[in-house]
Amino acid sequence: MNLLKIVCSSWRSLRRPTHARAQQSPCASSDKPRMQVLRRLRRRTQPRGLGSCYMFVMAIGFSSLAQAFDLQQLSDQLAKPEVIHGNFTQEKYLRALPNPLTSKGTFVLSKQHGLLWLLKTPLQQDYRINAKGIARRDANGWQMLPGKSAGAEQNRLFLSVLQGDSSGLQRDFELSLNGSAQDWKLTLIPRSLLLKQVFNQINIAGGDLVHSIELLETQGDSTMLRMQDSTSAQPLSDTEKHDFAE
């Protein structure tokens, strides 16, 4: 007898006693109501196949939604450091030029005082951005710049992004966040008329800190700003404190 016949024979032998008892037992008719109750109880306590799988998937879905990374969490995360130091590289892509204009420098972000943006190449120029506005340093010290220029709006944007000021950003942009706390992307679509005249869209990416800011302008130009080697472990130096206070 081959393996297939053995399996079939065993299956028939397992099923036969049940039918036999149903046909031969004199108590079959009296046991029938009790057996029906037992079968109903068994069906109610057994898993429901696709139904149970569906409930399991739904439970996972709700758990994922509960743990989703949102704008408030991003804002809280970026607002934690008291001071951030780092290097930046900015690439400006102009339609009329085959290669980008590249500038490099350092920045200092203070939760209490604002932002120092220190351009090193191709020319040296220092900017300070805080609640009072934007100032540029010259031979006579810090000089305030006009508050309604496109450059001023861009620098205010940098400060809001780096400080995690989502409420400030929401006044001027539609915000869309994707990803996790360690790897997120934030898309900004302008609301205000002034910003709509300058930007089509702004893309920001990061983890614990902001890593990059991409500005897509209405005229077809774009800017990619990358912050490298950022750290929150270093306090303000005496010189930096003086620059913020002056």
UniProtKB/TrEMBL annotation:
Q: Where is this region: Disordered?
A: 225-246
Protein name, per record = Outer membrane lipoprotein carrier protein LolA
SUPFAM superfamilies associated with the record: Prokaryotic lipoproteins and lipoprotein localization factors
The protein's superkingdom reads: Bacteria
Record GO biological process = protein transport
Q: How does it assemble?
A: Monomer.
The answer, when asked if Transport is one of the entry's keywords, is yes
Provide this UniProt record's keywords sorted from A to Z: Membrane, Protein transport, Signal, Transmembrane, Transmembrane helix, Transport
Q: Which organism is it from?
A: Pseudomonas fluorescens
Keyword Membrane appears in the UniProt entry: yes
Output the InterPro entries linked to this UniProt entry.
LolA/LolB/LppX (IPR029046), OM_lipoprot_carrier_LolA-like (IPR004564)
A Pfam family found in this protein is LolA_3
UniProt biased composition (Polar residues): 228-237
TM spans, by residue?
49-69
